[in-house]
Write a structure and sequence with these properties.
Shape: elongated
CATH topology of the largest domain: BirA Bifunctional Protein, domain 2
Strand order of the largest sheet: 1-5-6-11-10-9-7-8
CATH class of the largest domain: Alpha Beta
Oligomer: single chain
Helix content: 25-40%
Low-confidence stretches: none
Mean pLDDT: 93
CATH architecture of the largest domain: 2-Layer Sandwich
Bound molecules: adenosine-5'-triphosphate, magnesium ion
Number of strands: 16
CATH superfamily of the largest domain: Bira Bifunctional Protein, Domain 2
Length: 416
């Protein structure tokens, strides 16, 4: 039956993998907290305009990738393809301008209709951060440092490069656009079809075209950095200095862009060469004009988002399950006594496996399969004498222990 297959581009994340995902997400949250970020949880669907108006008519997401449907009430709804638009919408709807600056963390599923491949899914997960209300480069240093420390905690520091560029302020960008168009005009007949389309709508995006026909043209194009005015240059220098002081190394990638008008100054990506074509694990930038463009108060913003699936593919973090302790009634009639002991231990923070049926031998076999660290055996004699038999599953050593002293003996196995 077709419907028993997961929909193309979606996946069941089975426990082994789920543990890694959780670890990656928890690590992001933990590190974000150290920088004073708080979690915001926004809906996974919004009115379509929230995305179509903010991501721009010419972006890949809006032109090709949105999951949009009309709901039963006749509203046009889109499953969120990314987090920033929703956070900006939430900022406006909740009137949060009194609480600026805001440092927000989010996590959860995103949806894009794209061609599934390694590291590219139709439902995928992101963690992300946004700083609202800070126009200084200090916020840029802070969130890049946060990203860098997050990746460090995942043991990825040696696998990943930070690519950084500046788009300058509005004036600088307008000047640059004129220069770029002047240059590209000469190559009109050689550009790819996609790039030709972008020539009028969104010329900056041509800079990061992957099409080989465009590459050599783009490589010799004028660079944004040469069109920056004094303030924009200063902004970029301050950011670079800050990163250098923090020993965060980066590569100035002159063709790294975010194509939309509300993006300015900082654009960056953390990339790996170990993921094939889908090498970008974390990407972000400054979007000072976004909230204003959505109809909110003029509020600067900067943020990044990271793809959990790609990070999970890369990380070599331990993802072992915590080793449980088995409680084993040696006879089925001792089950209730075993249940009472198991429950008491669980309440006090231990991770307990209590099987449902089977002989002591079978239960012991299961305890081995479950990689239990210890087993507590409980039979008629033990119950009578208020003791248990505690077996170390690695050495096989057994000892009788008073039930009163059991927890003290198990303390080293406690889940904290
Ligand atoms: P790409 O160039 O890979 O399509 P993007 O520019 O569309 O990336 P962003 O919108 O910047 O990506 O999203 C931030 C991060 O989210 C990406 O760097 C990537 O790690 C992850 N990501 C984006 N799209 C997908 C997807 N379809 N499946 C899995 N992860 C994704
Ligand atoms: Mg994409």
């Amino acid at each position: 039956m077709e419907s028993l297959k997961p929909v193309r581009g979606t996946q069941d994340v089975l426990p082994q993998e789920s543990r890694i995902y959780r670890k990656v997400e928890e690590t992001a949250y933990k590190v974000a907290q150290r920088y004073g970020f708080d979690e915001i949880d926004i809906p996974i669907f919004e009115f379509s305009e929230v995305f179509s108006r903010t991501l721009g008519d010419s972006s890949d997401i809006v032109t090709k990738e949105m999951y949009t449907f009309v709901d039963k009430g006749g509203d046009t709804i889109t499953l969120r393809p990314e987090g920033t638009a929703g956070v900006a919408r939430a900022f406006i709807s909740n009137g949060l301008q009194q609480s600026l600056p805001l440092k927000l963390f989010y996590k959860g599923p995103m949806f894009r209709y794209e061609r599934p491949q390694k590291g590219r899914r139709r439902q995928f997960r992101q963690v992300g951060v946004e700083v609202l209300g800070v126009s200084s480069y200090q916020a840029d240093v802070e969130i890049i440092s946060l990203a860098s420390n997050f990746l460090k905690e995942l043991n990825l520091e040696n696998d990943i490069t930070l690519e950084l560029n500046t788009l300058g302020d509005n004036d600088s960008r307008q000047l640059y656009k004129v220069r770029l168009l002047d240059y590209l005009d000469k190559y009109k007949n050689e550009l790819s079809k996609d790039s030709l389309n972008r020539l009028r709508k969104n010329p900056l995006r041509i800079l990061d075209s992957k099409d080989p026909r465009d590459r050599s043209i783009v490589d010799n194009a004028p660079k944004i950095i040469d069109s920056l005015n004094h303030d924009s240059k200063q902004f970029f220098e301050n950011l670079c200095d800050g990163l250098e002081k923090l020993n965060i190394s980066f590569k100035h990638s002159t063709n790294l862009v975010r194509g939309l008008d509300y993006y300015c100054h900082t654009a960056f990506e953390f990339t790996s060469t170990n993921l094939g074509a889908q090498g970008t694990v974390l990407a972000g930038g400054r979007y000072d004009g976004l909230i204003n463009q959505m109809g909110g108060p003029n509020t600067p913003g900067i943020g990044w988002a990271a793809g959990i699936e790609r990070l999970a593919l890369l990380t070599k973090m331990e993802n072992k399950k915590i080793r449980p302790i088995a409680v084993i009634p040696t006879n089925q009639e001792n089950y209730i006594d075993a249940l009472v002991i198991a429950e008491k231990l669980r309440k006090n923070g231990f991770n307990i496996e209590l099987g449902y049926n089977g002989s002591a031998k079978k239960r012991m076999k299961k305890a081995n399969e479950n990689n239990c660290i210890a087993a507590i055996l409980l039979g008629k004699e033990e119950i009578k004498n208020n003791i248990v038999i505690l077996k170390d599953m690695d050495s096989g050593a057994q000892q009788e222990i008073s039930q009163l002293k059991l927890e003290k003996h198990l303390d080293m196995y406690k889940i904290i």
